[in-house]
Automatic annotation (TrEMBL):
Biological processes per GO annotation: monoatomic ion transport; prostaglandin transport; sodium-independent organic anion transport
Location relative to the cell: Cell membrane
NCBIfam families listed in its UniProt record: oat
Family per similarity comment: Belongs to the organo anion transporter (TC 2.A.60) family.
Segments passing through the bilayer: 40-63, 130-150, 170-190, 202-221, 316-342, 354-377, 405-428
Topology with respect to the bilayer: Multi-pass membrane protein
All residue ranges annotated as the Kazal-like domain in the record: 245-293
Classification via InterPro entries: Kazal_dom, Kazal_dom_sf, MFS_trans_sf, OATP
Species of provenance: Chrysolophus pictus (Golden pheasant)
Family annotation (Pfam families): Kazal_2, OATP
Alphabetic keyword roster: Cell membrane, Disulfide bond, Ion transport, Membrane, Transmembrane, Transmembrane helix, Transport
Protein name (record): Solute carrier organic anion transporter family member
A molecular function (GO) term: sodium-independent organic anion transmembrane transporter activity
PANTHER family: ORGANIC ANION TRANSPORTER (PTHR11388), SOLUTE CARRIER ORGANIC ANION TRANSPORTER FAMILY MEMBER 3A1 (PTHR11388:SF86)
Length: 473
């Protein structure tokens, strides 16, 4: 269910970015720019206000909850007992996962004593190689999502010349719903196939390999930057660039062009210019552009936007299909990973183990990756805008280097996750019973049956006991 949040967020962001940022204070009918213009800034604040209001009002009913939940009745219903693992329903279980009697409050440990145990318990958990490898693999998988998805909208804008609203809308309507489907299918396969921890890790390895192959295909799906006057090719020439490239040329020296904003235009010569000013256009109807020296003067016109790249639309459709498949398959590894994590720790430490998982996911999976991806993307910038002599945002990227670096970081993280999955598989294959605390699956030996008989018989009523004896005989 958590995945539906980002899906709705992308769609909400797409709606908000179609509204001008200062629409509340100005008359937008007098604006001479549209959402397709690179200078357009959407109402980024709208989603924060709406989601903040929803969070506030949804928190109000929580004040109606009691300070502590009442203990479960001693004779719970059969349906309730059937859903509870082992003997947890016999005694109330507090939030820290330690079983104790409801009336034994005075013998319970203090908060300070519990805090002193945390380092020892954490060391005990992290000393388990299966537990550590699975958590680190989950961090690598989340790092791909956190870093790759954080800049995916920007990536679509740069690679396929999409608008911000279109990119957000496509992400919210395609990739994220496919991820929801993948999570559901992963859980369904684990349940229907009754996978053991060893089978679950094999499934995670297979899913990781397939999704990594999808990421490799992204290296070949994209559009080139194309010829940009003064940045990738010299003025008056769209062939191989020379060593001296400068946005300022004798054809636009008298125009006093500014680099504080990026408003690209496509010339009749098939070359993109940083703005109509840099193209040397002297009239407001974008004609009479003196820098278009390779075309007749009467045809020296430009149109807003970058020049389209051949085959870019087909590459985008292929990219979108592969992205959907990659999102669905990659998300299928989530349930097997959690299954292994739960089965590799003792029952009284499961809740704390999940706490360690979520802590490390946020520390390693959500914080560093966007910084790493962002630094890599900035390194591919070809032209930086300037404002009052200071460097501003990147105005133009090298799309090929951008694509290779952006996708390669994701592939490296996925590969590291595969190595961790393989290490987990080796540990489980060599010593399965050492790492798996509750041995799932059939009981293969008489010794196993005898060791579990007292626990099994304690749950059976008289008629169920007779049936159990018949089955055993």
């Amino acid at each position: 269910m958590l995945v539906f949040g980002p899906a709705c967020g992308f769609i909400l962001g797409s709606f908000c970015t179609k509204i001008y940022v200062d629409a509340v204070f100005i008359d937008t009918s007098k604006l001479d720019i549209t959402p397709d213009d690179p200078r357009w800034i959407g109402a980024w604040w709208g989603g924060f206000l709406l989601c903040g209001a929803l969070l506030f009002f949804s928190s109000l009913p929580m004040f109606g909850f009691p300070q502590s939940l009442p203990p479960r009745p001693e004779h719970a219903g059969e349906s309730e007992q059937a859903m509870l693992p082992d003997r947890d329903y016999e005694r109330p279980k507090p939030s820290n996962g330690v079983l104790r009697h409801a009336l034994d409050a005075e013998s319970s440990t203090t908060c300070f004593q519990q805090l002193r145990v945390i380092p020892k318990v954490t060391k005990h958990l992290l000393s388990n190689p299966v537990f550590t490898c699975i958590i680190l693999a989950a961090c690598m998988e989340i790092a791909v999502v956190a870093g790759f998805a954080a800049f995916l909208g920007k990536y679509l804008e740069q690679q396929f010349n999409l608008t911000t609203s279109s990119a957000n809308q496509l992400l919210g309507m395609t990739a994220i719903p496919c991820a929801c489907l993948g999570i559901f299918l992963g859980g369904l396969l684990v349940k229907k196939l009754s996978l053991s921890a060893l089978g679950a890790i094999r499934m995670a390895m297979l899913v990781n390999l397939v999704s990594t192959a999808c990421y490799v295909s992204f290296l070949f799906l994209g559009c080139d930057t194309g010829p940009v006057a003064g940045v990738t090719v010299p003025y008056g020439n769209n062939s191989t660039p020379t060593s001296s490239l400068d946005p300022y040329s004798p054809c636009n020296n008298n125009c006093e062009c500014q680099t504080d904003s990026f408003t690209p235009v496509c010339g009749a010569d098939g070359v993109t210019y940083l703005s109509a000013c840099f193209a040397g256009c002297s009239s407001t109807n974008l004609s009479g552009c003196s820098c278009l020296s390779s075309v007749p003067a009467e045809n020296a016109t430009v149109v807003p936007g970058k020049c389209p790249s051949p085959g870019c639309e087909e590459a985008f459709l292929t990219f979108l299909c592969v992205m959907c498949v990659c999102s669905m398959i990659g998300a299928m590894a989530q349930t097997p990973s959690v299954i292994i994590l739960i089965r590799t720790v003792s029952p009284e430490l499961k809740s704390y183990a999940l706490g360690v998982l979520f802590l490390l996911l946020r520390l390693l999976g959500f914080i560093p990756p966007p910084l790493i991806f962002g630094a890599g993307i900035d390194s591919t910038c070809l032209f930086w805008s300037t404002f009052c002599g200071e460097q501003g945002a990147c105005a133009l990227y090298d799309n090929v280097v951008y694509r290779y670096l952006y996708v390669s970081i994701a592939i490296a993280l996925k590969s590291f996750a595969f190595i961790l999955y393989t290490t987990t598989w080796q540990c489980l294959r060599k010593n399965y019973k050492r790492y798996i605390k509750n041995h799932e699956g059939g009981l293969s030996t008489i010794g196993d049956v005898c060791s579990h008989l007292p626990n099994v018989l304690s749950f059976l009523k008289r008629d169920e006991f007779q049936m159990f004896v018949c089955v055993i005989l």
